[in-house]
Every structure is written in structure tokens, then in C-alpha cells.
From TrEMBL:
<feature type="binding site">
    <location>
        <position position="393"/>
    </location>
    <ligand>
        <name>Mg(2+)</name>
    </ligand>
</feature>
<feature type="compositionally biased region" description="Basic and acidic residues">
    <location>
        <begin position="16"/>
        <end position="35"/>
    </location>
</feature>
<keyword id="KW-0378">Hydrolase</keyword>
<dbReference type="GO" id="GO:0046872">
    <property type="term" value="F:metal ion binding"/>
</dbReference>
<keyword id="KW-0479">Metal-binding</keyword>
<dbReference type="InterPro" id="IPR036705">
    <property type="entry name" value="Ribosyl_crysJ1_sf"/>
</dbReference>
<feature type="binding site">
    <location>
        <position position="396"/>
    </location>
    <ligand>
        <name>Mg(2+)</name>
    </ligand>
</feature>
<feature type="binding site">
    <location>
        <position position="395"/>
    </location>
    <ligand>
        <name>Mg(2+)</name>
    </ligand>
</feature>
<protein>
    <submittedName>
        <fullName>ADP-ribosylglycohydrolase</fullName>
    </submittedName>
</protein>
<dbReference type="GO" id="GO:0016787">
    <property type="term" value="F:hydrolase activity"/>
</dbReference>
<dbReference type="Pfam" id="PF03747">
    <property type="entry name" value="ADP_ribosyl_GH"/>
</dbReference>
<keyword id="KW-0460">Magnesium</keyword>
<dbReference type="InterPro" id="IPR050792">
    <property type="entry name" value="ADP-ribosylglycohydrolase"/>
</dbReference>
<feature type="region of interest" description="Disordered">
    <location>
        <begin position="16"/>
        <end position="50"/>
    </location>
</feature>
<dbReference type="InterPro" id="IPR005502">
    <property type="entry name" value="Ribosyl_crysJ1"/>
</dbReference>
Length: 452
């Protein structure tokens, strides 16, 4: 089982310690001297087998690392009241002050679901492939700058061997093979969130999210922080300890990909969306991992009423503590995209700025999403292709950007090139969702707005 073995977590936790300012040098020396390995660059586990002594040491060191003081904690709180207090421009509109539902909401919600699916499918084949590999693949097939689905047709063998597709997802997400929307965790989680809201209502708690996961979520379909949280639930831990106990992935992107539905359930109310996303996120994440979810939910809530992408970004960024790494990354990305007409130069700067982060960390991926939204200017094709060309978590970022721009434009205005191959259906291993249509997902999302 990858992502959960103690000896595979220490390297990731050491990297997390460096990012939040903990002095872990003594722990790192003990780990290296014992033969422990660093964080694998792509997967959660090393190919090196671990004996019982190394595993026992890993468990002790993980607990020692958890006790180290965190200098960034004051600027990056996880407590919701502290987050709200830290935001000088926290958006209004929660609870009784929620704005009236906008005209054309059904088309915009449907556009969000379809846009999320299209962006996800575009990014699926090149997930885990670095930026330079994505460009070489696209250039070799006449698709650079990226303007369409990836394809294996005409791809030279040498390029294919140098940059192999994501074997799990590429067969169903290449241009020549797309026949409906294939299953993906970036689509399963919004559907699970929809079911959560239907079952427990808008006042759901983090414990309800945990029950939903244990009831409905196939454990083999979750990774990183979510898999650790499931392990912790099965060990008998309760939130928020499920997010903190031996979980070095707690600031990665997992909660961010779960958050869109909380925005769709709170159109025009970024504060309400962010609060809901917070209750979902703290099952598995802390600090910047939670902020990523709050930002994504605020983005999707704003996108259902905003006039353009930059308005949605500016509204959503108000839920981010200004001293956090997430806020700095989002504001910097927006400024870069606004000032630089060449998006490749924007990406050069972002990759230099976030070079030390894992490819599925929340901070760098939120920066890529923000830059693509601002630079894309509401153009669906330009926006989703821009964020996928950034590398990092291509299917997750493509999904988020597609969701936001799909909501801004509405389903009727989305290009048929992107929508027709999806066949108005989504594959899923979630109970009751396999083969569900975007029409039904839209109707069920709209029904949430009529609940007390």
C-alpha cells in the first residue's frame, strides 16, 4: 500500500518541514544514517524494501517531527475563526445575507460540470509528465501551442518512450479514444460532495464527510492525504487528527479537487462556499491544503455570478490569509499573468518560484490555475490548454480551470469540440453515479439551492 507506510512518509515529512520552517536537520541525519531514503519524486513509495527496524525508526521519527515547533503557524492557521480573523477583506454574503440566485444559473452550473470534465480529460494523458515533455509531445503531433486533445496518432516512438503516457488514464482520454467522460478522482470527488450535501444538507460536519467516505469511497481510488486520512479513520482517529497524524501530504492538492461542488451550492457566496469547503478539507488537510480548498470553492461560487475570470479570482482570493504561502502564490500568479502576454514566460517564472514543491502540492497548482484564468481571459480553450501546458497536476488543474470558465460562459457557449466527445455521461465507481449525465448532475446541484 503506497502513501501510508511509515518508511515512505519520512522523506515527504522532511520536505514539508523545510517548507514550513521546522528545523529537522537532526532527524534527517538519523534517518539518512540508518539508510532511510528521501521523498520519491512522483509516487508515494520507494522501490527499496524496508525491514522492521527501519520501519520502527520511521514511526518514531514521524512522531518527533510532529512535535517540532512550526514558525509559519502564526501566519498560516488551520482554525477557521483564525483564518477569518486573518483576512482583512473576508467576503460578505454568508447565511441570511446570501444573494438571490442569478438568472441563467442552470446553464452556468451545467457549464461548470461539463467544463470540469473537459479540462480533466484534456490533462489526464500527461499527468506526471513534466512541462518539457508535454511540450515535446504536443509539438511532435502538431498540437503546439496546445489547442486540442492529445493524441498518440503520429507520435514518434522515441518521443513516446521518452515521455510515456499515464498508462492508467491515457487509453480513454486521447482524441482517438474518447467516448464519454472516463472515471477520475477529480470527478468522483465533486459527485461524492453532491451526495454528501444531499444526505446531510448544507450544515454538514467533518464527521459527516468521514462517514460518507467510509460508506461510499473506494479506498483504492484515493491517494496522498486522502489515503492517509482513510487509514487514520480505520485506526480510530477522529478529525482533525485524521489530517495531522503521520500525514506529510496535508498541504497537497487533494482537498482542492474536492471543493467545486461547495461553490456550486453557494452561487455568489464565496464566504459560504469557503466555510463549507473548510469543513470538508480538515478531514485530511491543514493550512495551505485547506486554503486551496477554500480558494477553489470561493472561485466556483464567484464564477456562477462573475462577469469575467479576473473578477472571480479577485473575489475568491479574499478568503486566503494574507501572510500565507497560498495567498502570496495566488497574488503573484495573477500579477504575472496580467503583465506578461507570453504565457510561457509566466510559466517560467512560476516554475522558478515553486521549484521545491511536489507536483501535486496545493500552492504551485493554485498558482497555475490562477495564472491560466487571468491570462485566458474567459476563453475556454485558451484557459484549459494554458493550465495543462504548465505541467504539475494537469488533470486536476484542467478540471478546476474548466469548471470556472465553464460557469462563466455557460454550457450553451462551450465549444462543441470539447463537449461532444464526452457524450453527456460520466463513468464512476461511486454507487449510483456510473453513467450519470451532466443533465442529472445539474438538476441535482440546482435542487440543493431549494433546501432550507
Amino acid at each position: 500500500m503506497t502513501w501510508v507506510q511509515p518508511e515512505d512518509l519520512v522523506g515527504h515529512e522532511l520536505r514539508q518541514a523545510a517548507q514550513d520552517g521546522r528545523d529537522a536537520s537532526a532527524v534527517e541525519r538519523r534517518w539518512r544514517d540508518a539508510g532511510g531514503h528521501g521523498a520519491p519524486p512522483l509516487a508515494g513509495a520507494s522501490a527499496e524494501p524496508a525491514g522492521p527496524r527501519l520501519r520502527a525508526l520511521a514511526e518514531r521519527l514521524l512522531d518527533e517531527l510532529a512535535e517540532l515547533p512550526v514558525p509559519s503557524a502564526a501566519e498560516e492557521p488551520t482554525d477557521l475563526d483564525a483564518i477569518v480573523a486573518a483576512c482583512p477583506d473576508w467576503p460578505e454574503g454568508a447565511g441570511a445575507d446570501r444573494p438571490p440566485l442569478p438568472a441563467g444559473l442552470a446553464d452556468r452550473v451545467r457549464g461548470a460540470w461539463i467544463g470540469r470534465a473537459a479540462g480533466c480529460v484534456l490533462g489526464k494523458p500527461v499527468e506526471k509528465i513534466p512541462r518539457e515533455g508535454i511540450r515535446e509531445i504536443a509539438e511532435a503531433t502538431g498540437n503546439w501551442p496546445i489547442r486540442g486533445w492529445f493524441t498518440a496518432e503520429g507520435l514518434p516512438g522515441a518521443v513516446a518512450r521518452r515521455w510515456p503516457w499515464n498508462r492508467r488514464s491515457a487509453p480513454t482520454s486521447l482524441a482517438e479514444n474518447i467516448d464519454g467522460t472516463p472515471e477520475d478522482d477529480d470527478l468522483n470527488f465533486p459527485m461524492l460532495g453532491l451526495a454528501l450535501l444531499e444526505r446531510y444538507g448544507p450544515g454538514f460536519g467533518t464527521g459527516d464527510v468521514a462517514r460518507m467516505w467510509l460508506d461510499e469511497l473506494p479506498p483504492g481510488r484515493v491517494f496522498t492525504a486522502e489515503r492517509v486520512a482513510v487509514r487514520n479513520l480505520l485506526l480510530g482517529l477522529e478529525p482533525p487528527d485524521t489530517a495531522r497524524h503521520r500525514n506529510p501530504f496535508r498541504e497537497w492538492i487533494g482537498a482542492q479537487i474536492r471543493a467545486d461542488v461547495h461553490g456550486w451550492a453557494n452561487p455568489g457566496d464565496p464566504a459560504g462556499a469557503a466555510r463549507a469547503a473548510y469543513r470538508d478539507a480538515v478531514l485530511s488537510h491543514t493550512a495551505n491544503g485547506v486554503y486551496g480548498a477554500m480558494y477553489a470553492a470561493a472561485l466556483t461560487a464567484s464564477s456562477l455570478v462573475a462577469a469575467d475570470a479576473e473578477e472571480a479570482v479577485l473575489s475568491a482570493a479574499r478568503v486566503l490569509p494574507p501572510g500565507s504561502r497560498m495567498a502570496a502564490a495566488v497574488w503573484e500568479a495573477a500579477a504575472l499573468a496580467r503583465a506578461e502576454p507570453d504565457f510561457e514566460r509566466v510559466l517560467d517564472a512560476l516554475h522558478e518560484r515553486h521549484a521545491g514543491l511536489h507536483w501535486v502540492h496545493s500552492v504551485n497548482n493554485a498558482a497555475a490555475v490562477t495564472a491560466a484564468l487571468v491570462h485566458g481571459g474567459g476563453d475556454f480553450t485558451a484557459s484549459i490548454t494554458a493550465v495543462v501546458s504548465a505541467g504539475w497536476d494537469t488533470d486536476s488543474d484542467g478540471a478546476t480551470v474548466g469548471s470556472v470558465v465553464g460557469a462563466l460562459t455557460g454550457a450553451d457557449a462551450l465549444p462543441a469540440y470539447w463537449t461532444a466527445p464526452l457524450r453527456n455521461r460520466v463513468a464512476s465507481s461511486l454507487t449510483g453515479f456510473d453513467g450519470i449525465t451532466f443533465d442529472e448532475l445539474t438538476a441535482r446541484t440546482l435542487a440543493l439551492h431549494r433546501r432550507p
